[in-house]
Design a protein that fits this description.
Helix content is 31%, strand content 16%. It is an alpha/beta fold and 230 residues long. Strands 1-2-3-4-5-7 form a 6-stranded mixed β-sheet, sandwiched between helices. Strands 6-8 form a two-stranded parallel sheet. It has a two-stranded antiparallel ribbon with strand order 9-10.
């Protein structure tokens, strides 16, 4: 867990999610790297004692009720950063048929949680590389979306505190217009290099709004992103 001002953030899935499942002792170094206010705790304690819970695990793992019982998240503000990758997560027929968004399916799973979508379109190392003080000319922006206005406002404030402008996509089905995707035409090796080794690029709040506006919606749950999103 990490504390920012008077808000306690529970980060579930920090680092290697498999290792984290073995208990908080394996996260001592990761907690130390976050600073003196961070503490390694169990998943249950992170959920119970946090004002905001950041869920950063493989998409399929969120449906493991033994590890992540839905009732534990009841009433909690949950930042879900998850992306659906069939090659890793297996097939979810509702998503493949475009009957629901990934975020919509997660909201069905965690019915009583106050879900907010954020950080799903940025690699965690870029959070450090791109963070800038408010008002800085090179400050970047991140979409923050959800149906709960109060939860969305609290997560937006957190995003602003850590060095990014928060932009509300204002979409009826809140997650479809943004996704972490590499440029077209890259090999699998080049895609991995682009995603994991690159430092990202600055995208201003105005840029984010313009790119979201360019997204083409061709079904009830989503559509096609502009190439410039890459």
């Amino acid at each position: 867990m990490a504390t920012t001002k008077t808000t306690t953030i529970g980060i579930i899935g920090f680092g290697n999610s498999t290792r984290n499942s073995r208990g908080p002792a394996t996260l001592a170094d990761a907690a130390a790297a976050l600073g003196p206010l961070a503490t390694a705790v169990s998943v249950a304690d992170a959920i119970r004692n946090s004002d905001i819970v950041s869920l950063s695990i493989p998409f399929k793992t969120a449906f493991d009720d033994a590890a992540f019982p839905a009732d534990a998240f009841a009433g909690k503000i949950v930042v879900e950063t998850l992306n659906y990758y069939p090659e890793r997560d297996g097939r979810f027929p509702q998503l493949d048929a475009r009957e629901v968004t990934a975020s919509g399916l997660l909201q069905q799973r965690f019915k009583s949680a106050r879900l907010v979508k954020a950080f799903s379109n940025i690699y965690f190392k870029h959070l450090d590389n791109l963070a800038r003080p408010k008002g800085h000319p090179e400050r970047s922006a991140l979409p923050v979306a959800g149906d709960d206005a109060d939860a969305k406002a609290k997560v937006s404030a957190f995003v602003e505190d850590i060095g990014f402008d928060a932009v509300d996509p204002n979409t009826p089905v809140y997650s479809w217009p943004y996704f972490a995707t590499p440029p077209e035409g890259l090999s699998e090796e080049e895609k991995a290099k682009w995603f994991f080794e690159g430092h990202g690029r600055r995208v201003s709040a105005a840029d984010v709004r313009a790119l979201l506006g360019e997204a083409t919606k061709d079904s009830p749950v989503g559509g096609v992103l502009p190439k410039s999103f890459s």
